[in-house]
Specification:
Four copies of one chain form a homotetramer. By secondary structure, the first copy, chain A, is of the alpha/beta class. Chain A contains twelve helices and 13 strands. Chain A has a seven-stranded mixed sheet. Chain A has a six-stranded parallel sheet with strand order 2-1-3-4-6-5, sandwiched between helices. In chain A, helix 1 links the parallel strand 1 and strand 2. Chains A, B, C, D: This is N-acetyl-gamma-glutamyl-phosphate reductase.
Chain lengths: 346, 346, 346, 346
Amino acid sequence: MIKAGIIGATGYAGGELVRLLMGHKDVEIKWYGSRSYIGQEYASVYQNFFERIEDKCLDDNIEELADAVDVIFTATPQGFLASHIKEEMLEKAKVIDLSADFRIKDVKVYEEWYQIQHKAPELIGEAVYGLPEINREAIRKARLIANPGCYPTCSTLSIYPLLKEGMIDPSTIIIDAKSGTSGAGRGAKVDNLYCEVNENIKAYGVATHRHTPEIEEQLALAAGEKVMLNFTPHLVPMNRGILITAYASLKKQVSDEEVRAAYDNYYGKETFVRVLKPDVCPQTKWVEGSNFVDVNFKIDRRTNRIIMMGAMDNLVKGAAGQAIQNMNLLFGLPETEGLLLMPMFP
Amino acid sequence: MIKAGIIGATGYAGGELVRLLMGHKDVEIKWYGSRSYIGQEYASVYQNFFERIEDKCLDDNIEELADAVDVIFTATPQGFLASHIKEEMLEKAKVIDLSADFRIKDVKVYEEWYQIQHKAPELIGEAVYGLPEINREAIRKARLIANPGCYPTCSTLSIYPLLKEGMIDPSTIIIDAKSGTSGAGRGAKVDNLYCEVNENIKAYGVATHRHTPEIEEQLALAAGEKVMLNFTPHLVPMNRGILITAYASLKKQVSDEEVRAAYDNYYGKETFVRVLKPDVCPQTKWVEGSNFVDVNFKIDRRTNRIIMMGAMDNLVKGAAGQAIQNMNLLFGLPETEGLLLMPMFP
Amino acid sequence: MIKAGIIGATGYAGGELVRLLMGHKDVEIKWYGSRSYIGQEYASVYQNFFERIEDKCLDDNIEELADAVDVIFTATPQGFLASHIKEEMLEKAKVIDLSADFRIKDVKVYEEWYQIQHKAPELIGEAVYGLPEINREAIRKARLIANPGCYPTCSTLSIYPLLKEGMIDPSTIIIDAKSGTSGAGRGAKVDNLYCEVNENIKAYGVATHRHTPEIEEQLALAAGEKVMLNFTPHLVPMNRGILITAYASLKKQVSDEEVRAAYDNYYGKETFVRVLKPDVCPQTKWVEGSNFVDVNFKIDRRTNRIIMMGAMDNLVKGAAGQAIQNMNLLFGLPETEGLLLMPMFP
Amino acid sequence: MIKAGIIGATGYAGGELVRLLMGHKDVEIKWYGSRSYIGQEYASVYQNFFERIEDKCLDDNIEELADAVDVIFTATPQGFLASHIKEEMLEKAKVIDLSADFRIKDVKVYEEWYQIQHKAPELIGEAVYGLPEINREAIRKARLIANPGCYPTCSTLSIYPLLKEGMIDPSTIIIDAKSGTSGAGRGAKVDNLYCEVNENIKAYGVATHRHTPEIEEQLALAAGEKVMLNFTPHLVPMNRGILITAYASLKKQVSDEEVRAAYDNYYGKETFVRVLKPDVCPQTKWVEGSNFVDVNFKIDRRTNRIIMMGAMDNLVKGAAGQAIQNMNLLFGLPETEGLLLMPMFP
């Protein structure tokens, strides 16, 4: 059995990690870290686990944790892991970081967008960006995984094949994203109250959202050139789910079949990326609770643009599910172990 | 592997059966019956199963089906199974009926409340009411299971121990129930449109809902006397979940601890019924997607009444999950097989 | 023009007062009191009023306010008004209190249920309980109005005629209430976050909710005897609306027509209480945004109980609308002035 | 008093017309046309009007109606009005058409996108596109108003000033739109059931939505050149509201202040278009139930694009409210008469 510890276990992503790991036959959770709830029963914070989990919340002493477990998941605020990680820990336990600390290779870009000084820049080089469909082999050998952001996962997977195949012009990419409210976390803020979010939709972080440089870096790797794009997230009155609608100009004359072949080329053998049939639009509900990303596209011949769409559960493939997918790779398990839960509908 | 067939596979309960059976290691679904979608791919009706299920929908020929499978689930309108079942089928396959056809032992009561003539009254006696926490041993030996209604499951489990222990006066029971909208089915009706249900709550079927006699029959068995009660269901703007709030007068002076002991006496060893800690109210969200029923109570000394509460996912413990729990018992499998999915939160 | 001041203008009830008063032709708001937002533009807190309101938030100096306006609305936490009110103020301005401070005549009951020492018990006697359909004449002459609680308004109006006519047994009353989330206020608490409330229903304050004694006091006045009842509120995933479902045993043999006549007797001439046609259940959506209360009933001959139902917008008839209805009476205006907004559907 | 008749009074837009006209002091509704509900009380279809409207539904005989009223609102399926309108009617009554029949000047474009043969092409030239903020003077003199579509209203108003001022490149416009579910109408379809829409978001009509040519035509008038753009609508789990997020490349170097000045130039005196303060994103909730459109913008210097945002209630400014605004202009009333309802929050 793999021994796992979670720091930040009482946030929504932490709770989802617990839900999924409870169904993973090779893992046992040894450490429920939560600074705010130290000493309280974990199942009193998340009553869904009542009678299934007896443990109490522990603090976030990552050093002690590294001695106790094989893998550490950090679902913590930006800057936490970079401030606390030390090289020696990585010799004891694998670390899968759900924060942004090690996602961006250029430390200046990180510091500019996050307005935080990076405290462990020496480890950025080693960290592997944990998007298995793209970086599978590097992940297998890693010690430190930068688990991708929710928006970047869905955006990158939806656009990647067309950039890779040179079908679209990178300078024309616009990503209009919509997210359920769990992405905003469990903090008590007026903006996230039921009555403020319900029956409402708005854009936020327009032209300034921190996931922008992460998406640009990943797409630049695919394009083989620098990418600058527009990314606009919106808050949608639902608990879970991200839908991205991305636009780009076609660089050359391509048929629907050629585009489909490009997607199939990259995802034909991928369990978790499903290229939908022609004219079926991805819907977040069809992937809820699962690790799937549903993608599809539509070419508009009038404007010579292609519309790329992707739907995903932000807490699963966008956070905890992908973290476990990475863990499976790190420990040589079948990649889908514990992750074949069917989406729940309705 | 147990071979299973589903009639009514494209309703919400049918879809949930499929979701849960996909995660059951001992079952394979051989027949997706759906009169409305014959010949269409099942995964085109429920896109959550895209790439996971290749099968097409078949018709509802239950006789042919009985030859092909070990167990038949009928998630069909009232009257369907009674009209089509024949004794010989039960020699070939176990039948688990999610409709109301065989739930009520008194055929006159059934015909009066359902306004249907019962076409197979000779099988009512044999059918076993499939509430495992109460009828476990009878279920194991049955051929035909009457899978309980959603409201009756939650109501009965919440009230049963106190009636059994003679703590409450049966003539004073009032059940105020609240259900998510999936309970209304997938039929296209104006009343179930998003804009009609959303931001709205109403009672319906007041003093006339068909689950009333089913609840009364089960509680009468517990009380050892005839029970007549009020049952008022309400439609709540959410997909899943049933909450029942039941009221009764205490027959004798009892302490909180004695009441708790009564619940523990019946449910202490039950995996799927969770008696919450004092002063924790059941919430439907804490059981969503799972087979758990969370129950608790509060005594009001001022009025000498007890308030009994139960929360459950109507599609799981209230339908498909309970059906699989019954199947596990019928086939000698561990009762919780395939049913230990943790509730999804948020 | 009547000059009005609001203390607590940035809570949900305060915001609703502003919305409704903006459409009242005889009132101008001179004071937007909000301790938390002093100096900020009111329309920056409630953007719905952008370009329609220029004023900034002021503090909650009720003494100064009494000099500046004709009527003061206090939408403040329990205890605030009792701590700050002085007899002299009532000579300068009418006060309509949306808190519970002056609703309950028995100060001991207030102090016991609210766990607050009442700081102005000498004014309790003078205060008039502002339920116009019952206390209209007393309201006209009052200086201090105790604006009823949301649950008590809906509960009392739904049950009152039958108690008054001696048709139901007061000792058997059970009120099962359901409320939208705006009733919980705009405070930043985890329990009120979108992801905690959405797709969820729960009871809360079981057997201990503070509106219980208020309802009991009002119903006792109707019954002419002490009333002790069960009141159980539930939190429903919607912004607005209260539905109450009340149960009582009939004291005598009555026909549907006789019960209907009792309701019509009290509400036939009331604009804001609508007795629905037979078998039409009240729905909160049908009254949203309006000052209407829709009531109806169903007799269950099997159990000899009657089910009484009422639906209302908690922020309008349950708070701000009723306050304005009281104001109209206090100032000799037509009672419906500014309150004939049609409910918004969907 | 202006006598009004409505054809299609039982759809959502029809119901909203009734709600708003009930609060309009110069109008009385004489005809509630609804083919599906002929002879039924209107208030039994929309219970929100119980006791406020006594009338029964009449048929859709537009010829008879033209004799009876001063103004006819048609909230009917595409093709209905064009099939029934005759020149003589326009001499008797003004017609405000909420369908698309007379919105598009080029009949070929209409027939291509709507797949309907236009039955009254001779009246297209006379019809005035009823967007008062742009066509005010022409509207005043019209007999036949083509009331704009919901998406085109919000899209056009959000983008218009910048095209008019030559600030953006028309060939780069992309409109990503999000709508509440009332836009899909009150027809009983599985796709619009509560459980299908709730907790879900999806794009639909990608690159094929019929509002595309209407938007293009209006923006072409502003740009002074042909416009081809991408328009992608999404279905959001809420009753009301449209948010559009539009993208375009800047044609020249402009400051934030210059862009703001452009908006103010066109909307500074407009009551119903509110240009929000810098960095405040429009939210649909802030305009719910009202005739306001909130717009704002953000320049992304990195990509040289501008993001234009607009929020609106699809049933008010996007349908019934705008129709009344047009009616006010047609009859020489103050343009805002009956339309100054404040948005409802929450």
